[in-house]
Design goal:
This protein is an alpha/beta fold. The protein has helices at about 1-20, 35-50, 80-90, 95-115, 120-125, 145-150, 190-220, 230-235, 275-285, 305-315, 345-350, 365-375, 385-395, 410-420, 425-440, 445-455, 475, 480-520; strands at about 25-30, 55-60, 70-75, 130-135, 155, 240-245, 260, 290-295, 320-325, 340, 355-360, 380, 400.
C-alpha cells in the first residue's frame, strides 16, 4: 500500500514538473490578408495568455477584446489579395497555375511590408522573446523573425501538410498521400497516383521558383554581414510545424514528431453569446430552421457577379427557412425579407445553434472543419485553391452536395439545397463524422499549447531535429549510396574476374607443365 502511494505521489510530481513552463515571452508574426487563417493562431495565443505567458501578435486583425498578457501590433495589409478575390467573385479564371506568380508576389509583398513596418521595427529593437510563432503561406523568408530575436521558431500553417511546409524533412510519400490540391482521396486509384506524381513534380518546380523569389527578401531583411544565418540554415533551424488538419478529416499520413496536427484549433468549444438580434432571429426560426451563407473572410459577397447573386437571391425567396448571410456591406440590394446580414458573424455560435439546418459555404478548410465539428450538412460552392477538393470529399463522405460557381443557376442551387434539407441521410452522415472528428486523446488547443510550451521548456527542442532535413535530393533518394554500391560491385566483379582468370591461368599452366613432365618420363 505504501509502495502504491509512493508511486502515485511520484507520478503526480513528475507530471507537475514536466507540465510546468515558466512565463515566457512569445511573439507571433502572421502577415496574411486572410482573417480566417489568423483565427487559429489567435485562439492559441489567447490560451497561452490565460496561462500566464506574455504574447504579442503582429497582424492585420487585432482582437476587439484582448485578454490580459495579450498585445496586438497592427499592420494594415488586409487588402493584399482583394484584387485576386474580386476576380474570383466575378467569375474570373481560377486556374491556380496561372495565378500562382500573382499570389506568391502578393504574399511576399505583404510579409515584407509587415516586417518593415515601423511598429515591428520598434518591437525588434526594443524587446527580446523566448519563442517566435510564424504564420506561413508562400512567405518562407519570414522565418528570419526567429533569427532576428535569436529564439526558437515555430511555423503555423492553416492547411494540410505539403511541400510548402516540409522544412523539417517530413517524408512526402507520393505513392500513398494525396497532394493538397488533389483533395483527401483515400485510397488513390492508379490514375490518382499518376496525377499525384505530376502535382508533386510541379510543386517541386514551384518551390524552386518560390525559393528564388524568397532569397532576395531574406537576404535584404536578414543580411549575413549583420550576423544572420543563411536562408537554408534558418529553414533547417525550425523547431516545430503546426498544421490545421486532423487525420480523421483528411487522410492518414506519416508525420515526424515535430509535425503536429492541431486541426480545429480555432473552434471555440464554448461559443460566445451572439448579438441579441441574431440570437432572436435564430431562436424564432421554428421547425423550419435556418440556413447560414458565408464565402469566408477573403471573398466579398457584394462583389459577386450579378447573375450568380440573382440566382442565390431567387433561391432564398423560395425557402421557408430563415437565412443568415455574411455580407460585407451595411445594406443588401433587393434583400429578401427572410435574410439577416452581418459583416462579421460569429460562425461557430451560428453553426452550434440547434435551429441551423444547412451551411452554404465556399468550402474553405476552416468552414468545412467547423461544419464537421458542429454536425451541419453543407452545400458547397468552391471558388479556388483546395476548396474543390474539400467539397468533393464532403460529397464522397455523404454529408453535402457541390454546386459549381460557373454552372450556378437558381434551379440547380435550389435542387441541391432542398435535397440536403429533405434527405435525413446527410445529417446522419455528418453526425457520425462529427463524433469521429472529436474523438482524440487531447483537444486541438491543448495539443497546440503543450507543444509550444515543450519547445520553450527544451530551448527549441533540438533533439526533435530529423537528419533527413539536412540531406539533399540525391541523398534522400539514396542515389549517392546506389552509385557507390554500383561502383563497389563493379570493382568487386572486375577483381573476381581478374583473380578468376589468373587462377585459371595458373591452374592451366600447372596442368600443362605436369602433362609435359609426364610425357618426358614415359
Amino acid at each position: 500500500m505504501m509502495k502504491l502511494t509512493f508511486n502515485i505521489a511520484l507520478t503526480l510530481t513528475l507530471m507537475l514538473l514536466t507540465s510546468h513552463t515558466e512565463s515566457a515571452k512569445i511573439v507571433c508574426v502572421f502577415p496574411t490578408a486572410s482573417k480566417s487563417h489568423v483565427l487559429g493562431a489567435q485562439a492559441l495565443l489567447k490560451e497561452l495568455a490565460f496561462r500566464g505567458h506574455e504574447v504579442t501578435m503582429v497582424s492585420a486583425f487585432p482582437l476587439k477584446r484582448p485578454p490580459n498578457n495579450y498585445r496586438d501590433v497592427y499592420v494594415p495589409i488586409e487588402d493584399a489579395f482583394s484584387t485576386i478575390m474580386n476576380d474570383f467573385m466575378q467569375g474570373g479564371s481560377r486556374n491556380m497555375l496561372k495565378l500562382f506568380p500573382k499570389i506568391v508576389r502578393a504574399a511576399q509583398d505583404s510579409s515584407n511590408v509587415t516586417i518593415n513596418a515601423p511598429e515591428f521595427i520598434r518591437l525588434a529593437h526594443e524587446e527580446q522573446f523566448d519563442l517566435a510563432l510564424v504564420g506561413f503561406f508562400m512567405n518562407s523568408f519570414i522565418i528570419g523573425v526567429g533569427e532576428l530575436f535569436r529564439c526558437p521558431t515555430v511555423l503555423y500553417f492553416s492547411a494540410s501538410g505539403s511541400g510548402l511546409t516540409n522544412v523539417v524533412g517530413n517524408p512526402a510519400e507520393v505513392a500513398a498521400v494525396p497532394h493538397m490540391l488533389l483533395g483527401p482521396r483515400n485510397p488513390m486509384t492508379f490514375f490518382d497516383r499518376v496525377t499525384n506524381t505530376i502535382l508533386h513534380g510541379m510543386e517541386k518546380i514551384m518551390l524552386m521558383y518560390i525559393r528564388h523569389k524568397e532569397l532576395t527578401y531574406y537576404e535584404s531583411n536578414f543580411p549575413a554581414e549583420e550576423g544572420f544565418r543563411s536562408y537554408d540554415e534558418a529553414m533547417r533551424n525550425v523547431s516545430l510545424v503546426m498544421l490545421n488538419t486532423y487525420f480523421s478529416q483528411y487522410v492518414p499520413r506519416p508525420y515526424l514528431p515535430n509535425m503536429v496536427e492541431v486541426g480545429g484549433i480555432q473552434i471555440n468549444l464554448r461559443p460566445e453569446a451572439m448579438p441579441q438580434d441574431l440570437q432572436q432571429f435564430l431562436d424564432d426560426a421554428g421547425s423550419d430552421g435556418a440556413i447560414f451563407i458565408s464565402f469566408g473572410s477573403n471573398l466579398r459577397s457584394s462583389n459577386m457577379r450579378q447573375d450568380k447573386l440573382d440566382a442565390i437571391l431567387m433561391m432564398i425567396r423560395g425557402l421557408k427557412q430563415r437565412v443568415i448571410w455574411k455580407w460585407d456591406q451595411d445594406e443588401m440590394p433587393n434583400r429578401p425579407p427572410n435574410v439577416f446580414i452581418g459583416k462579421w458573424l460569429p460562425q461557430d455560435a451560428i453553426l452550434a445553434h440547434p435551429n441551423l439546418k444547412l451551411f452554404i459555404t465556399h468550402g474553405g478548410l476552416g468552414s468545412i472543419t467547423e461544419a464537421m465539428y458542429y454536425a451541419v450538412p453543407i452545400v458547397g460552392i468552391p471558388m479556388f485553391g483546395d476548396q474543390d477538393g474539400n467539397v468533393a470529399q464532403v460529397v464522397k463522405e455523404g454529408w453535402g452536395l457541390m454546386v459549381s460557381f460557373d454552372d450556378l443557376t437558381e434551379p440547380l442551387l435550389s435542387g441541391a439545397v432542398h435535397e440536403v434539407l429533405r434527405d435525413h441521410r446527410y445529417r446522419e452522415q455528418i453526425q457520425e463524422r462529427s463524433i469521429l472528428y472529436k474523438d482524440r486523446p487531447m483537444g486541438a488547443l491543448e495539443t497546440g499549447v503543450f507543444w509550444i510550451e515543450y519547445i520553450i521548456r527544451h530551448r527549441g527542442a533540438p533533439h526533435l531535429h530529423y537528419q533527413g532535413a539536412d540531406l539533399n535530393i540525391f541523398q534522400i533518394a539514396l542515389l549517392d549510396v546506389y552509385a557507390f554500391l554500383l561502383v563497389a560491385f563493379y570493382i568487386i566483379y572486375k577483381i573476381v574476374i581478374i583473380v578468376g582468370k589468373q587462377t585459371l591461368k595458373v591452374l592451366f599452366d600447372a596442368s600443362v607443365q605436369k602433362s609435359t613432365e609426364k610425357q618426358k618420363i614415359t
